[in-house]
Amino acid sequence: MTSRTSHLPSIWLADFANKAEFDARASEMHAQLEVIAAIDDRMLQSRHPFDIKAWCAACNAVTAMRVTWHYCGTNPMGSVHPAWTETCACNQCGLNSRMRALVGFLFSKLNAPKTARVYIAEQTTVSYKIIKNLFDNVTGSEYLGPHFKPGEIAKDFKDHANIRHEDLSRLSFPDGSFDLVLTQDVFEHIPDYQKTFSESARVLKQGGALVFTVPFFYDQAQTGIRAKIDMQGNVQHILPPEFHGNPVSNEGSLCFQNFGWDLLDTLRTAGFKQPKANMYWGPWAGHIGFPFFVISAHKA
Q1: Between β-strands 235-237 and 227-229, what pairing exists: parallel, antiparallel or unpaired?
Q2: What pTM was computed for the model?
Q3: Which label site among 49, 141, 281, 287 has the fewest CB atoms less than 10 Å from its CB?
């Protein structure tokens, strides 16, 4: 396998096991944030889309990355900023910042071997194609709806052929099937996310790793519930409905929760050890905006 190292600095600034550790670094990070914000300000060349040169962990090369203002917003001080994790998409592989961060974590922090058995909870996306190219043994799936059985292969589903259906809360795989379980912004769309963590632990081998991204609210100690399913199976909205993109549905996916630091405690309860929120930033690798995290945990 081609070496996946570069001579650029690491993007991994710190990892945290809980909010107390994060808060203990707050004063130090406040000064750090001033420097990072100043650098990020200089990176934003235009209100129009523009390209930057940066190291892509997926392509293992310097590529052009497109910064756009899709889904941009304002912070409490009124400053406009892009949706940092969703932008800086590599023009070569197509992966945005958070997707490339997850790939980078697999190799720079986990040293995952190419022979690892990998399950990724997507199959119709660019990310799936990249992961399948990086590892020898990859299984992907999509959630196709309640009328499909776990493990069922849909021969023809909305212009996609041979798509495997899996429900992360009741996976069809035997115990200990994989070395890695990967998800990207999925768990926030599953109301019984605790069950999905237990299922992820079940299908991992001893010492295997769950690595994922979610919208992570680092200022929250507790996960905020936006919606839930009542006893009759109906969606009960607690906060205004929020929908995110879904690769197999134009209707999008409802967001059920905004994760806080208790996410790491839930992973421990589900059978994981050493859950970490791994913080990253580095414009040399196309990661602008701060702080953002890749979450990881190992099967106990």
Answers
A1: antiparallel
A2: 0.94
A3: 49
